Amino acid sequence: MEDEGNEIIRLRSSDDKVFEVTERAAKISELVEDSPREEDEVTEIHIARVRSPCLQKVVEFMKHYDEEKMKDIPTPLGGDTFNEVMDQPWYQDFVSDEKMDRDMLFDMLTAANFMGIKPLLDLTCLKVTFHLTGKNADEIREILRLPELTPEEEAKAREEHKWIFEDS
Amino acid sequence: MSRSVKKEDFLDLNELHPYGVLPGGNRFFCSSSGYRPEEVFPDNLWQQVLSFCDDRALGNVVQSSRYLYVAGHQPELWRDLVLRRCSEEKQTISSACSSWKDTYLKLFVRDASPMVHSPIPVPDVYSDEYYRTHLCRSFAIPKTWLVQNNSSAHEPSQVSFSKTTKPPRQSCQQEVARVSVEDLSPSQFFEEYEMKNMPVIVEGAAKGKALDRWCSASYLNEHSSGRKTYRATSGAAPLPANFLFDAYQDYGNFSYLEESPLYLFDRTAFTSNDQWSDDFFPEFYRKCPFWDPSERHGHDLLQHLGANRRPDHTWLIMGPKRSGSVFHLDPNATHAWNACIQGRKRWIFYPPGVNPPGVFPSEDGDEVALPLSVGEWLMQYWTEHMDQYRKRPLHERPMECTVGPGDVIFVPHGWWHMVINLDDKNIAITHNYVSPSNLGNVLKFFKEKQDQVSGCRDRKESIKPEHLYSELVKALERKEPDHLKNALMQSGWTCRTWKEATKSFMSKPDTKEKSVPSRQSKKRPLENEEPNSCRKSFIEMTDKVEAFSFSFL
Question: What is the ipTM of this complex?
């Protein structure tokens, strides 16, 4: 193993918890890549918008990605379920409902965006998408906890979308 | 001369956002304390999520909430569903409805609702991102652009060359020179424009059968020589689209509210169609012998490579209002002429060696970062563009003009240019060529910039970039040895666009310090070939440089 890339850097969360990760693993984050390095001491990068529970998982992702790259997500997706599109077990498990609830999933998505980690961004977006797929409008509203359309707006939208319920 | 156009002129929109979106700051004035999806994550991430959705998922999503009603109706989402499915199923777009969503339903969903999608303006949706895309795609066209300022408006047509009208020079805007085709001899064209590498509008050069006949869409379709599908692309689309001719007309008729509409440009339109060629070229060559390849003055030197082996060179171009090309350089250091058959176009030029605002080429010119759409450039860089008229010395200033049906514009090599279609329907023909005036630079380009060569990679029979230099030299040794000899004597670049020295003429220091806006992408300035997916989603672009289809206007 080369020495380069094995240096430890520290990532500090918004609530001041520090996580250590190798340079090589961390550089999938553009934010980390672009941050200046200390010369004589261990570099510590403040990840100002990510809280520790979330950052811990991000670091977990980084470490695993260093060992097993995540496959790119193709478009079109090429599968009807999440597991068909993302067939790598570790990654399936990482964002599974058992291991990651809705709030954490959304936090991870935001963190991936903030830190510029494309594979994590794709993975979390894909998961959110599959949370929405196959659900009707009411269920989606429930999942996302969003304000509704008015009854009139909803009726008009429903009228326009009858085709969803017909088998083609 | 009309007053200068200001950025505010583009903001004088005719229409509100069809889905009722207001700029983000307005949320501070609203009384509703409802949940804000944008507080969960920003609009661009929602677009990323929604870009993975299939048709049913997206259809359900838009019914679920006001915000998602707006987000899920971004036309680019439905456009991408159409393009991907057409590509998967090898299907042509056989008809275009009033929106991408309706088009998708018509093509792929049997028994789709007969209801046409009509946007509901919903209150309580505040988003700078969506409002901004609305501005970019529906910017107002300044009235001054719609006027062509004909040179001979008040003069008899027998005006001699020395009386060519150039609009009075002012401290601000300068317009491209105009001359009537009847007043322009070949030697005058070569000496005053081609050798000096200056743009000019040759008025009346495109008048003739094409101008008279092509205003009828059915005429073009009837005489399409059995040709069925036409390719259209845009910088923002992940794939090209193949349309039936009528379908593309319909697409142009509707306002799809896309930031970068699909552009039809077709490189085989004239090789495979005698009627279309006959409608335009004979009269054009007669009027403009300086552009006739069969004349002996050495025009169109790449013809000697052979008709199928030479890089792409002649395109039919069609596009709807506000479509266009953001700044680019024409391929392979060629000159071009662009003949306007229908619809007016606004051209903006920057001279060789001067980078337009918002355009950041790498040192070797292989990559360029710049806004993806015309509207975005206007919103972001117009003010800086107007400043260039004041700040720069005369020879570095931009130039602008409006070209109308019947006119042909000469685009000299090395000039950055941007084109905006102003009318509902716009048809043009363009041709890129090499003449003795730029042969030296073209040879250098083929020799030293092989990875920037374009127009030849995706056709089997065409000469590949690594052989173009030697093949051209070989061909010209036989056919045009004198021109070749002169060109090979040229020691360096004669055009500042490619000279080493141009580094010092690049963006002035204050623009260098500007950060590259987040929605820019890196791409080659010269590619005009099959695009790989160049923009998968709304999210900020990655650094991947994608081959990209450009429409050269």
Answer: 0.79
